Amino acid sequence: MEKDIFGKAIADYHAGNYSEDIKTYSSLEEEDTIPLPYLFRDYKKMPVVEQKALKLCKGTVLDIGCGAGSHSLYLQKNGLQVTALDHSKGAIETCIKRGITQTVCSDIYDFKDQKFDTLLMLMNGIGIVGKLQNIDALFTHLKTLLKPNGQLLLDSSDIIYMFEEDEDGGYWIPDNTKYYGEVDFVMEYKGEKSDSLPWLYIDYNTLQRAANANNLNCELVYEGEHYDYLAKLTLIKE
């Protein structure tokens, strides 16, 4: 059974039991934290990339990897029919308590037989594929959830900046790395650690190639100041 570190932390914060943040350890850098208040931020405190994505949402929306539900809550309050999906039981229970009316506790691959106008994957939601080699399987599944004129909105980051640059402008990438955006994460909360979780950060050009290979148009909607971006994917009409 999964430990649901993320869900426990979210549930604690919402219940008023906030005493510490989630610690993260990755294969690329030393210890970092996920501040719990940030997961409950309102629209004004969201980064521009997320604000732009929310403004582009239309029709029925599936918020994939909804976490504490801040994006879903904003969309719902603005009249959109949104379904908040997360595999974390604690996250979904918190979403319900926050007033989100449609929630699903499920792995995205197990969620089927519904179609949406907008699929939303924010806070690098595409990272759930873990490894670049798995992206075709994800796109194949996501296409079954899209209406004919639907859209997939996602943000990610090109983490090439985390690697050492040489004099010629190239980067030192470890030989054992298939793709430099593949990272392994461990989360810790109140002394309990999660299992190692593979996570993907994907640069825009690689995303575009993968999308096109899966019969999806890929448009760069917004480029942030620190290697982050927002992309919109749509079905290529056959």
UniProtKB/TrEMBL annotation:
<protein>
    <submittedName>
        <fullName>Methyltransferase domain-containing protein</fullName>
    </submittedName>
</protein>
<dbReference type="InterPro" id="IPR029063">
    <property type="entry name" value="SAM-dependent_MTases_sf"/>
</dbReference>
<feature type="domain" description="Methyltransferase type 11">
    <location>
        <begin position="62"/>
        <end position="153"/>
    </location>
</feature>
<keyword id="KW-0808">Transferase</keyword>
<keyword id="KW-0489">Methyltransferase</keyword>
<dbReference type="GO" id="GO:0032259">
    <property type="term" value="P:methylation"/>
</dbReference>
<dbReference type="GO" id="GO:0008757">
    <property type="term" value="F:S-adenosylmethionine-dependent methyltransferase activity"/>
</dbReference>
<dbReference type="Pfam" id="PF08241">
    <property type="entry name" value="Methyltransf_11"/>
</dbReference>
<dbReference type="InterPro" id="IPR013216">
    <property type="entry name" value="Methyltransf_11"/>
</dbReference>
